[in-house]
Amino acid sequence: MPYICIHCGKEIKSLEKFIRCPYCGYRVLAKKRSSIAKEISTD
Ligand SMILES: [Zn+2]
Questions:
Q1: Interatomic CA distance for residues 4 and 32, integer angstroms
Q2: pLDDT tens figures, 22-35
Q3: Distance 40 CA to ligand 1 centre (A)
Q4: Which residue has the higher pLDDT, 35 or 9?
């Protein structure tokens, strides 16, 4: 699940290797919010 740096707004995909934003170094990240819910299970 992609994350967004709340400081610079960059999208961070590979969060496994680093906990902080690779662009600005900010450590507070938020889960990417999508207006279109992709987590809907269609079974
Ligand atoms: Zn950042």
A1: 5
A2: 899 999 988 876 65
A3: 29
A4: 9
